[in-house]
Amino acid sequence: xxxxxxxxxxxxxxxxxxxxxxxxxxxxxxxxxxxxxxxxxxxxxxxxxxxxxxxxxxxxxxxxxxxxxxxxxxxxxxxxxxxxxxxxxxxxxxxxxxxxxxxxxxxxxxxxxxxxxxxxxxxxxxxxxxxxxxxxxxxxxxxxxxxxxxxxxxxxxxxxxxxxxxxxxxxxxxxxxxxxxxxxxxxxxxxxxxxxxxxxx
Length: 201
Hints:
By secondary structure, this protein is an alpha/beta fold. The protein has six helices and eleven strands.
């Protein structure tokens, strides 16, 4: 599940669920971000598109392509980075004032005064995505393990039988988690997956 916007089957790469930003909206946002020289990344299919397109900037194992190669259709998410809360709020206000009825905007604190602004279609919800997946795979809630780190994962936790918070998660999420693993930097996801496979949790 990609941030609640898209569900892709891992083996076939088939998209079974998608809520995308409207092409005219994503195109305008991208043009404006390039003009203002903001750092941003567009996630689509197996690739992350950026202005510099250098592996390791957004995530170590991303497949990068130049933003000029991007088609504006079927974009599940735009991620914008800001080096201050003031700049993050400025970007958020611009997005909301221009596209309020068409996108959702969430500001997440990362580390060292770096903020991430997630832009999705207004229709995106992790809860809705997990509900679709449960129905699609005929699963019981208690067969679902959810891993999260921020406030937008609360609705995801409500639909899971077992809830795992990352070590770097916000306190609100940790307080409702069944288990807290290590942080992203400490490979908490890998460790907790190994624990699940070994039957420890």
